[in-house]
Structures are given as C-alpha cells and as structure tokens.
Amino acid sequence: MMVQIGLIALLVVAYVIVSRILKSTVRLLGQKSFANEVRITYVSKMLNLGFTAVFVMLVCLVLGIGYGQLAIFFSSVFAVVGVALFAQWSILSNITASLIIFFGFPYRVGDWIKVVDKDDEILGQIMEISSFHVIIHRLSGDVVTYPNSLILQKAVVRFDSRDAALAMSQFTERLKVENHKPLS
C-alpha cells in the first residue's frame, strides 16, 4: 500500500512538472511563430487534455486496476466519443488540422497568400488562424472563412507583400481575358 502511495505521489509530481514544461514549450513555440494568444491557449489545453488522459491511465495501473478492466473502460469511452465525433467528422478533422497548422503551417497572420482551388482561387491576407478555420481578407474587401482541413489539402502560394499579391491578381485577370477572346 505504501509503495502505491509513493508511486502515485511520484506520478503527481511528474505530471505537474511535465505539464508546466509542455505549457511553456507550446507558449514559446506559439510566440516564436507569432500565433494568437487564444490559439496558444487552445493548443496548450488540447495537449494537456491528452497528457491528463495518459496520467489517469498510469494512476489506474498503479492502483492495481487490471489491463483488461482498463481496456474495457477506455474502449467504451473511445466508442462513445468516436460515435459522437463521427456525426461531426468535419469538426474532428478541423481540430486535428488546427494542431497541425499550429506546429507546421508555414504561413502566419498578416501573410499574403493565394489558395489554389479549381472553383475559386482565394487571394488575400491572413487575418486570423482559429481552431476551425483560417480567415482571409481578399483584395476585393470580402472576407473568406476557409476550413483548416481544406487549407492543408490545397496548394498555397505565399507573397512577399501586398504589391506582389496585387500583381498576381492582375496577371491572372489578364490571362482570363486573353483565354476568352474569340479566335479570328
């Protein structure tokens, strides 16, 4: 019994230390990539939630709860969560894409980009990267809300400045006009 209490105390201390390290690392990475403070907090909470689940599982193992019982419990929880999220698949994919964008997206708020899409190419400045979408302010003044899961699937061109984006827009318009001229 004393060994279990000692192990649980050790796990709690390790949990607190690793949790603080995780939070400060995410904050540092977020500030390095000029991420929004709300976004940094969101990503930190999501990672902390996963870490807490691992901690609870380890405490259950230390308390002597068998692997079989633990497996049944977690499989039941995952089944319920899976059914709930399957109904909202796009939400789950956007949340996952949000984490990928936070750690690996090469574009930042303020960058001028063009999302290459066959239906409508979106050219503008990134105004915000949120948990579910990227908000792009177009040259025309329109605001486009583009889902995180889709922006990871499309080609994205980054421009050095507004002038470069404007030049690309004008060039694209000239090509469209030239391609629609009647043949003589």
Automatic annotation (TrEMBL):
<keyword id="KW-0472">Membrane</keyword>
<keyword id="KW-0813">Transport</keyword>
<dbReference type="GO" id="GO:0005886">
    <property type="term" value="C:plasma membrane"/>
</dbReference>
<dbReference type="InterPro" id="IPR023408">
    <property type="entry name" value="MscS_beta-dom_sf"/>
</dbReference>
<feature type="transmembrane region" description="Helical">
    <location>
        <begin position="72"/>
        <end position="105"/>
    </location>
</feature>
<dbReference type="GO" id="GO:0008381">
    <property type="term" value="F:mechanosensitive monoatomic ion channel activity"/>
</dbReference>
<keyword id="KW-0997">Cell inner membrane</keyword>
<dbReference type="Pfam" id="PF00924">
    <property type="entry name" value="MS_channel_2nd"/>
</dbReference>
<keyword id="KW-0406">Ion transport</keyword>
<comment type="similarity">
    <text>Belongs to the MscS (TC 1.A.23) family.</text>
</comment>
<feature type="transmembrane region" description="Helical">
    <location>
        <begin position="47"/>
        <end position="66"/>
    </location>
</feature>
<comment type="subunit">
    <text>Homoheptamer.</text>
</comment>
<feature type="domain" description="Mechanosensitive ion channel MscS">
    <location>
        <begin position="91"/>
        <end position="156"/>
    </location>
</feature>
<dbReference type="InterPro" id="IPR006685">
    <property type="entry name" value="MscS_channel_2nd"/>
</dbReference>
<keyword id="KW-1133">Transmembrane helix</keyword>
<keyword id="KW-0407">Ion channel</keyword>
<dbReference type="InterPro" id="IPR045275">
    <property type="entry name" value="MscS_archaea/bacteria_type"/>
</dbReference>
<comment type="function">
    <text>Mechanosensitive channel that participates in the regulation of osmotic pressure changes within the cell, opening in response to stretch forces in the membrane lipid bilayer, without the need for other proteins. Contributes to normal resistance to hypoosmotic shock. Forms an ion channel of 1.0 nanosiemens conductance with a slight preference for anions.</text>
</comment>
<feature type="transmembrane region" description="Helical">
    <location>
        <begin position="6"/>
        <end position="26"/>
    </location>
</feature>
<protein>
    <recommendedName>
        <fullName>Small-conductance mechanosensitive channel</fullName>
    </recommendedName>
</protein>
<dbReference type="InterPro" id="IPR010920">
    <property type="entry name" value="LSM_dom_sf"/>
</dbReference>
<keyword id="KW-1003">Cell membrane</keyword>
<keyword id="KW-0812">Transmembrane</keyword>
